[in-house]
Amino acid sequence: MGAWGTGLFSNDTAADLRDDFKLYAGLPWPPEKLTEVLAEQYGVPPEGPYDDADQTGFWLALADLYHAYRIDVPEVFEKARAVIADGSDLALLRELDMSNADLKRRAQLLDGLPAKWSTPPEKPKKIKPLKPEAEILAAGDLVAYPTMSGDARRKPYLSQEIETYRFEQDATNVFIVLAVERVFHDMFVKYFIAPLVMFGRDEAPALSECIQCYFMCEIHVSMRTFEPVGDWASISKRDLNFMGGRKIANVPLNVERVETFFPALPRYRGQWRHGSLDLLRTSHTVWDDVVRCGMWGELEDNLSSFIAEVPEA
C-alpha cells in the first residue's frame, strides 16, 4: 500500500479509485453493477474479513465517493461502517508500521465519517454520462499526414518546447490502420496503426505507390533484432485534424499475416490502455542503441503482401 498520509485518498489505491470512479460512474450501469466492477478491478472481496489495508480503504473511499455524488448504495455504506466499527482498518494500518501519531489522526477521521455520510451533501458532485465514441477510421484505411523531419505534427509538452516548436511541413507520410477495437465496455475505440516509409514525398501518394512501400521498423542494435513499428493508438477527430491527417484509400487486409507480423496487435487486443500517436515520430528513439529505418523482413514484405486482394492499378 503506497500511503503518504492519513486521509481517505492518501494512498495509491484510493487515489486511483477516485480517478476511475469519475469515468466508471458515467457508464449506463446501476450502482450495484458499478460497485461490483470496481471491487473486481481492485481485487477486493465482497465480504470480510479483510487482510489488506487497501481492501478496507477501498470501501471507505468508495462510500465517501458515493456520498459526494449522492448515490445511495446501502451495502457499501454498511461495509464502510463495519471496517470503522471493528477497527480492522486501523489494525491493518498498524501492521504496515503507521506511526501512533498518524493512527490517531486516522482514527479521528474515521470517527467522523458515519455522521458525515448520514447527511446528504449540500452540493453533490455531478456525473458526466459517457457516450460511445464514434469510429472515425476503419481497418485497411490509409491515412496521409504532413511531416517535418520525418515527424508528424505533435503537441509539445515541455514549457521550453511550447515556445520554440514551430511545425513546417517538408514531406508527407502515410500510416495504415491494421485493426479497430472497441474497449472499456464498448465506450472507446482503439486503432492499431503502423507507419509506412514514403522517402520524402511532397504530396500524398497514389494507392499504387503505397502498396509498394515498406513498414517502418526499429533496429535494436545491441540485440540485433528488428521490430516493426506499430501499436494501438487513441485517435479523435481533433487529433486527426490537428496533425493534418486525411484518408486516401482503403485496402482489404490479410488479418492472419498482419497479426503474425505485428506481435503487439493480438497481445493487447481488447485491453483498455491509453494509446499514443508518438509512434509517428520517426526521429524518436527509446534508447541510444535503437534506430528507426525503412525496411523490415524480406524484400517482398511490403504492404502489398499484407493485402488480401491487391487492387488493380
Q: Can you walk through the features of this model?
A:
By secondary structure, the protein is an alpha+beta fold. Helices cover 34% and strands 16% of the residues. The chain contains eleven helices and nine strands. Helix 1 runs parallel beside helix 3 (53-68) and helix 3 (53-68) crosses helix 4. The mean pLDDT is 87.
List its salient traits:
313 residues; alpha+beta; 3-stranded antiparallel β-sheet; 11 helices; 34% helix; 16% strand
What's the structural blueprint in terms of helices and strands?
Elements: H1 12-24, H2 31-41, H3 53-68, H4 74-85, H5 88-95, H6 100-117, E1 141-148, E2 151-152, H7 159-164, E3 171-183, E4 188-195, H8 207-210, E5 217-220, E6 225-228, E7 231-233, H9 237-243, E8 246-250, H10 255-261, H11 264-267, E9 290-293
Antiparallel strand pairs: 1-2, 1-3, 1-8, 3-4, 4-7, 5-6, 5-9
- Overall geometric form: elongated
Radius of gyration: 26 Å
The portion of residues forming beta strands comes to 15-25%
Output the helix-strand order: HHHHHHEEHEEHEEEHEHHE
Total number of β-strand segments?
A: 9
Short summary:
Helices cover about 35% and strands about 15% of the residues.
